[in-house]
Amino acid sequence: MNIENLKFNYNGKPVLNGINVDIREGEILGILGQNGCGKTTLLKNLNKNLVPDSGCVILDDNNLEEMSKKEIARSIAVVPQTNEIRFAFTVRDIVSMGRMPFMGTFDGESSKDVDIINDAMEKTGISTFSDRYINTMSGGERQRVIIARALVQNPKILLMDEPTLHLDINTQFDVLDLISQLSKENKLTVVIVSHDLSMVARYCDRVMLIKDHEVYAIGTLDEVLTPDNMDTVFGVDAELITDIKTGKRTVFLHGSTKRL
Amino acid sequence: MKPRKEHTRALIAIAFLTIVTIVIILLDLSWANWPLSISQVIDVLMGGGSSVNRTIVMTINLPRVVMGIFVGAGLAVSGAVMQAMFRNPMASPYILGLSNGAALGAALGMVTTIPLIPVAIAVPALAFIVCFATVMLVYMLSRVGGNIQIETLLLSGIAVSALLSALVSLLTFLSSQDQMEQIVFWTMGSLSKATWSNLMFVVPVISMGIILMATLSKELNAMMLGDAHAMDLGVDIRKVRIILLIFSTLVIAAAVSFVGVIGFVGLIIPHIVRLVVGPNNRILIPVSAFAGATYLVMCDYIAHSMYTITGVLPIGIITAIVGGPYFIYLLRKRKREVGWN
């Protein structure tokens, strides 16, 4: 997926001011930035929930703007920030909605659809509660249901907006371990918008920093998460380190660099 | 694969409603100003019976019962669709100002005389047109830069509704004693004026509307999770919403313009059905259609069976008197589900 000189204005004010990025197949790309920098808006432009004012998003040689929402949903799935659902849909009801982009008006579930649905529930570990009601479940469980629904779309690209925001700390790891494993197994491209530096450092292959509505830096963890960059973009005194116990990368925060 | 719980429940609900509907229809067919026995009704339906009985059943009662079936189904399905579309448990066919729009149109038809057009056509025609125009006005008022905020839509509906209600009161106040009675009676609803020529219009419009809304069940399910969820699943929500709004309005306008304001069916029937069969619209919409039809014909039967005490009551009074307490009972007993958390 290529993003070419994408500009988006909201009420006449620029929110995204000429974004250029190549998103590579099979990678996990983290998008970081302060609140209001435009990172969520960027994500919404990647599946045409918002339409850019200029520039474009290219998916496999097709301009997203010329594709229907339904066509886009066959390649791109989304795990949104909040998953509060007030209705008593069963888990299975929700997961099966991921087949919608592939079904015509009068189609029911084919046996292939049923297989895909069961497989996704198996992978996300929710098969045992397929008859439970979604509005009675915890945030972490709901998140797994939504991830299963996204997998059922058989996406090439998975977009996640603050996927760990409302989760317990241990559940945050469970969810992202799952995503990381799925990405490796299925060559799934994942784009994660977050403001959690250590989570991004632990799970992402590449990182992009957005500051003042523009790309400030993009590249590998070592290229991008330098103390200078983290000071400029987030105002923190931080360093990218390797956790001795697990060998995983993480960001250690010493404190704020802003003086009040 | 084992049959799923909701499917079994939906089938039981439909089977139950079918039996109840048949009984209620037979009962309701037996009433004009005096009751026939059910066996006399069955005789007529089988092609026998005396000519007086034939006239009572086929000419006087059948149009009323058919009207009840289609209006009940239409109101219930439109209510179900609006609650899902706006994700709001209070949404009903009337919240967007439809009832007061139709009432204003009907009142205009009653107090003014349009040359060449008889009152019997002018009243439903004006009710239909003003009702439809009201929804379009409410919709346009709540457009902000091409987007519709649900809260704004509901609030403009309530505001416009209040304004129209005041206009109906004004017309009632200024009209003659005779017209005043007509307007008041119309706002209480009645199936009694149904004729076969009305049904030639009502039946196709309502059935087409219900079928078209039902074809968008999957999209509606996704929209119940939230607009963002629906868009992520490939639903063009702007298009789906305007189609659903147009068809639900058409159905309600067709219903109320001939029978007047019948409250509560569109609000409570979908809630009760949702408690039994769950929120999935592929099941909810057809079961609501059955339940709405049954409920309205039942209320019509009750309205007639009070004849000796009160005369034939306006059906709008019965739908609220019967439905209100039952709904309150459900709310108390199963607060969480009815209240949507």
Task: Give a description of the structure.
The complex is a heterodimer of chains A (260) and B (341). With 260 residues, chain A is α/β, with parallel strands linked by helices. Chain A folds into two domains: 1-75 and 155-225, P-loop containing nucleotide triphosphate hydrolases (Rossmann fold, 3-Layer(aba) Sandwich), CATH 3.40.50; 85-154, no CATH class. Chain A contains nine helices and twelve strands. In chain A, the strands form three sheets. A six-stranded mixed beta sheet of chain A has the order 6-7-8-3-9-10, with helices on both faces. In chain A, strands 2-1-4-5 form a four-stranded antiparallel beta sheet, covered by helices on one side. In chain A, α4 (111-123) runs antiparallel to α5. The termini of chain A are far apart. The two termini of chain B are 32 Å apart. Chain B is mainly alpha-helical. Chain B is globular and about 65 Å long. Chain B has 16 helices and two strands. Chain B has one domain: ABC transporter involved in vitamin B12 uptake, BtuC. In chain B, α12 (265-277) crosses α13. Classes of the chains: A alpha/beta (260), B mainly alpha (341). At the A-B interface, α2 and α3 of A face α9 and α10 of B.
Named CATH architecture of the largest domain in chain A: 3-Layer(aba) Sandwich
Outline the biggest β-sheet of chain A. Answer: 6 strands, mixed
What sequence of helices (H) and strands (E) makes up the elements of chain B?
Answer: HHHHHEEHHHHHHHHHHH
Strand content of chain A: 25-35%
Helix count of chain A, per DSSP?
9
> What's the helix-strand series of chain A?
EEEHEEHEHHHEHEHEEHHEE
CATH superfamily caption of the largest domain in chain A: P-loop containing nucleotide triphosphate hydrolases
| Total domains of chain A | 2
CATH topology of the largest domain in chain A: Rossmann fold
Q: CATH superfamily of chain B, please?
A: ABC transporter involved in vitamin B12 uptake, BtuC
Overall pLDDT confidence of chain B: 85
Strand element count of chain A: 12
What coarse outline of chain A follows from CA principal-axis ratios?
globular
Please give the CATH class of the largest domain in chain A. Answer: Alpha Beta
